[in-house]
Amino acid sequence: MASRRLAFNLAQGMRSRAANSAIRPLRRGFATPVTSPVGAKTQTTTLKNGLTVATEYSPWAQTSTVGVWIDAGSRAETDETNGTAHFLEHLAFKGTQKRTQQQLELEIENMGGHLNAYTSRENTVYFSRAFNSDVPQCVDILADILQNSKLEPSAIERERDVILRESEEVEKQLDEVVFDHLHATAYAHQPLGRTILGPRENIRDITRTELTNYIKNNYTADRMVLVGAGGIPHEKLVELAEKNFSSLPTSSPHTEAYLLSKRKPNFIGSEVRIRDDTIPSAHIALAVEGVSWNDDDYFTALVTQAIVGNYDKAMGSAPHQGNKLSTFVHHNDLANSFMSFSTSYSDTGLWGIYLVSDQLTRLDDLVHFTLREWSRLSSNVTESEVERAKAQLKASILLSLDSTSAVAEDVGRQLVTTGRRQSPGEIERVIDRITEKDVMEFAQRKLWDQDVAISAVGSVEGLLDYQRIRNDMSRNF
Question: Which of 124, 252, 428, 434 would bridge with 70, disulfide CB 3.0–4.6 Å?
Fold first, then answer.
C-alpha cells in the first residue's frame, strides 16, 4: 500500500511540474551538481628541503589515499645492481627501527587501512589508504619505512627467495616477457632497456650494501612527492610532511648511474625472436619511438593509438569494434587478439601494437596489414574515426579517476614526471582540439618510414625477416 501511495504521489508531482512548465521554465531538481567551495583542484607546496607536497582535497570524502612517489626505478640502477629498487620495495614492510614487521602489519590492520608499493622503470611508489582520521598515522608509517627500514640480513634472504619465485611467475606471463624483450632491444645496453625485477643472478647476489646505497642515492627530497587525495586538507598534509620528512637528504649525489638515468636513450630499430614451438601461438610486439610525458604530441599519440584500437576474438563485440584493423583482422581470421599501446617515459616512449595469433602460417599477413594500417594513418584519416577515438580516450582517462587512489596516482605520476598536474578539465580540452590533420601529421613524423623494434616469442617461425617488416613501414596503397 505504501509503495502504491508513493508511486501516486510521484506521478502527481510529475504532472504538476509538467503543468507548471507552461508558466515557468523547467528547473532541474534531482541532478543539480554540488560543487565544493574549494573546488577539486591540486594544491602544491615545496618544503625547505625540496620535498613537494601535493593534495586534491574533497571535503565530502570519508577516506584518503596518501603516498610517496619517488623519481627512481630500475632506470636508476646499473647493470650490476639491476633489481635493487624492486628488492627494496619488498623489504620496506619487513620492519623498521620503530616497528617490527608484526607491529607494522597490526597497526595497518587495526585501522582498517591498506598499505602497498610498486616499482616501475622510472618510479617507486609507497602508498596507503585509510579513514581521514588515520592519515597522520599513515604518514608516520610511510616516513618510517622510507627512512628507517632495518634491512635485516634474515629478511633479505627470505625476500630473495620470494622474488626469485616472483621472477619465475613473471616468465610464465608471455605479455610481460614480450614487453621486457621489446624494451631490451629498443633500448639495448641502456638503463631503460633493463627489466624491473633484474636478472636472476643479480637477485641472488644483491647485498645489504647495495640496498642502502640505493636509498642514499635516490630517496632524497628533491626526487620525492608526498601526495594526498580525498578528505585530507592541504595544510594538514604539509604540517604532517614537515613533522615526518624534514630530515630527508635535500638532493641526490650525481653518481654515474644517476647521470646515465637522466640521459635521453637512443631508440634502436632492431628485433629479438625467441622461438618456442611448445607455445601454441605467436606473441609479437612492434613499436616505433613514441613520445614522452612532456611531449606536445602526448595526447595526439593516444588518439592515434585509439584509432588503431584493440581486438579480442573471444568477445561477443569482436566483429563490431568500429576500428578498421579489427574489422579486417576478424573477417580474415588473422589474430586471436591485438592491443595498441602508447607507453611514455620522462624523455622518450614506445608507440606500437601487441599481437597474439594462433594462425601460424599467416603471421606475415597479420604484420603486413597491421603496418599497412599504420601507413594509412599518414594520409587518410576520417573525422568520424578521430571523434570516436577522442571519445574513447576521454572516457578511459576520466572514468579511471574514480577513487582517491586513482586520483593520487594521477597527481603523483604527473608531478614526478612533468612537474605539474593537468586537471581532467584541461586534459579534456586538449583532446577536444585534436583534429584528423594533427593525427596525420603525427603519423607522418613518427610512423611513416621509421625504424621499428620487434619482440616475438612463441611459435614465430612464420614471421618474415626484419627487412621485409621494415620495408612495410612506408607502404603506398
Answer: 124
Distance CA 233, CA 57 (A): 6
Q: What is the pLDDT of residue 402?
A: 87
- What kind and span of H or E run contains 181? helix 174-186
Beta-bridge partner residues of 356: 283, 337
SS (H, E, C) 182-216: HHHHHCCCCHHHCCCCCCHHHHHHCCHHHHHHHHH
| Burial state string for 74-100 with b = 16 or more CB within 10 A and e = fewer than 16 | bbbbeeebbbbbbbbbbbbbbbbeebe
Whole-angstrom CA distances from 86 to 61, 162, 377 are 32, 12, 39
CB atoms near residue 315 (< 10 Å): 12
C-beta separation of 426 from 41 below 8 A: no
Q: Which helix (H) or strand (E) holds 44?
A: strand 42-46
Q: Comparing C-alpha atoms, which of 433, 397, 393 is closest to residue 306?
A: 393
Which DSSP state fits 136? H
Handedness of CA 289, 337, 166, 103 (dihedral sign): positive
Total H helices, total E strands in the chain: 18, 12
CA–CA distance, 215 with 203 (Å, rounded to integer): 17
Residue 199's φ and ψ, nearest 5 degrees, are -70, 155
Long-range contacts (CB closer than 8 Å, 24 or more residues apart) made by 35-43 = 36/60, 41/423, 42/411, 42/421, 42/423, 43/234
Q: Within 13 Å of residue 107, how many CA atoms lie on the same side as its CB?
A: 21
pTM summary value: 0.89
Q: Give CA 347 to chain center in angstroms.
A: 15
Q: Please state, in angstroms and rounded to a whole number, the distance separating the CA atoms of residues 293 and 344.
A: 6
- Cell 603516498 maps to which residue? 67
Q: How many CA within 13 A on the CB side of residue 28?
A: 5
Q: In terms of DSSP H, where are the helices of 247-353?
A: 256-261, 298-308, 324-331
Q: Which residues of the chain have pLDDT under 50?
A: 1-39
Which residues carry out catalysis?
Answer: 89
The tens digit of pLDDT for each residue in 42-72 reads: 999 999 999 999 999 999 999 999 999 999 9
